[in-house]
Amino acid sequence: MKPVPFEYERPHSLKAACQLLADDEDAVIIAGGQTLIPMLAMRLARPSRLVDISRIDGLSGIEEQTDNITVGCMTRHAEVERSPVIASHVPLLSAAMPWVGHAPIRVRGTIGGSIANADPSAEVPLVLVTLDGTITLSNATGSRTIPARSFFSGPMMTEIQPGECLTAADFPVWQHSRTGIGFREIAKRHGDFAMVAASAQVSVDATGKCIACAIGIGGVTDTPLALPELASSLVGTAFTDQSVHDAAKAATDNLSAMSDPQTSPEYRKRAATKLIADALMAARNDALETSEGVTT
Amino acid sequence: MKCQLRVNGEDHTIDVEPRTTLLDALRDNLKLTGTHVGCEHGICGACTVLADGEPVRSCLMLAAQADAGPEITTIEGLSTAPGELSIIQDAFCEAHGLQCGYCTPGMIITASALLERNATPNRDDIVDAISANLCRCTGYGQIVEAIELAAEKLRQRNASPSEASQ
Ligand SMILES: Cc1cc2nc3c(=O)[nH]c(=O)nc-3n(C[C@H](O)[C@H](O)[C@H](O)COP(=O)(O)OP(=O)(O)OC[C@H]3O[C@@H](n4cnc5c(N)ncnc54)[C@H](O)[C@@H]3O)c2cc1C
Ligand code: FES
Ligand code: FES
Fold first, then answer.
1. CB distance from A37 to chain B under 8 Å?
2. CATH 3.30.465.10 is held by the domain A62-171
3. What is the pLDDT of residues B126-138, one digit of tens each?
4. Using alpha carbons only, what angle is made at residue B53 by residues B47 and B57, rounded to the nearest 5 degrees?
5. Which CATH code for domain A179-289?
6. CATH number reported for the structural domain that contains residue B113 in this entry
7. In Å, how far is B47's CA from the nearest CA of chain A?
8. Which of B18, B55, B131 sits opposite A7 (nearest CB)?
9. SS3 of residue A269 by DSSP
10. What are phi and psi of A29, to 5 degrees?
11. Do A33 and B42 touch (CB under 8 A)?
């Protein structure tokens, strides 16, 4: 199908883009278009105007700060996937990128678009929430930064207010030398959205004891979900298959999981338990190997 | 709106509605009908073209987004001259990498992007690259073989460029 008619604007400043959005409540941002254009084609979206933010200077790029990496909203998935800076400082994000659709989608899709779109199964929001990152939003008069864990309010729903553009996401960098990651996903076919995904980052000390832990799940509840209590219950322990599995099971027991014709809530919770445990063990083993100098 | 597109090395100015996809602009305005229309929402890969050398879905790009933007290469731009076949196209014929041919332009564009980055792809690399493209005829086996053959031929040509051009 073909989209309904709309106006198209390509402002050259962030302020002008935000003003266009503020002046017309039916205007929407187009970034990579990899979600919006299918929605237009199926006429599920009928905006009056598209505001193309792709030619605004300063919205794209990966910047190293002291404790985090800032990724500009227009940074394409493919750039993040290939970035050596991301690979060495936020390896969990590197590990998640190949799961985002297929290569041609990642050439056009953007980090800001993935986050703003707030699909509960999307990988980039999952990693951001797992690592307790932040999101910066701007309007025509200023900007604000909020924790990713309070940004997602429901499926495809966020804290973005009318007239606002998501300009960047900050991914925290862990300084512990022995840090490992684990990312696990079940999808019907490679490239499809996740039915369930789990992402984990773990640091260990010289004895192999866990000194820091982060874990999150996607596709289970209606937003990507960090499990900070599960993570902190594992800090100070030596992971065993059994203890990690029991902790994962306890953490998923009371979740209200989503349901769709293919995937029941019970399946989602069972799969989440298994993927959480696998991701945590993989992260812990990765951290141990790092300490032995086996991997870089 | 007016859009300036650079396609297969040539500049074009076209006048289209903002809702026109790059796919429709290529086919309807520039008459480059080698790029095929399948699902029109990013699933099938029939419409794949190169934007600055990288594979993209032309159904998921507006002509307006390509205005004064990336250089586009379509299947027509891959062959060396009208009526001639590129090495990859030739390999698809030789290895029977097509039946009805509907998916073929997208497959060949995808293969050319892969081989541009990786001269020695293994079977998994090839399968991963074309996993973004649907074929309802071949069962994929011969497409994978065609890309393996193309990689081999490209390596031979690059090892002895003068012989291959004779
Ligand atoms: C076949 C296919 C498979 C896919 N598989 C996956 C997958 O497995 N996992 C996954 O995560 N994604 C998947 N995607 C979606 C893809 O990752 C999208 O690129 C991404 O969700 C949206 O990014 P975009 O830049 O294309 O945004 P657009 O499509 O341009 O925009 C999406 C939405 O976000 C809004 N928006 C965009 N940028 C901003 C901003 N800076 N500030 C405020 N609002 C903004 C838009 O107004 C729109 O509502 C798939 C897409 C396709 C077509
Ligand atoms: S027509 Fe573009 S992906 Fe199917
Ligand atoms: S050859 Fe018919 S769809 Fe691939």
1. yes
2. yes
3. 999 999 999 999 9
4. 20
5. 3.30.390.50
6. 1.10.150.120
7. 11
8. B18
9. helix
10. -75, 140
11. no
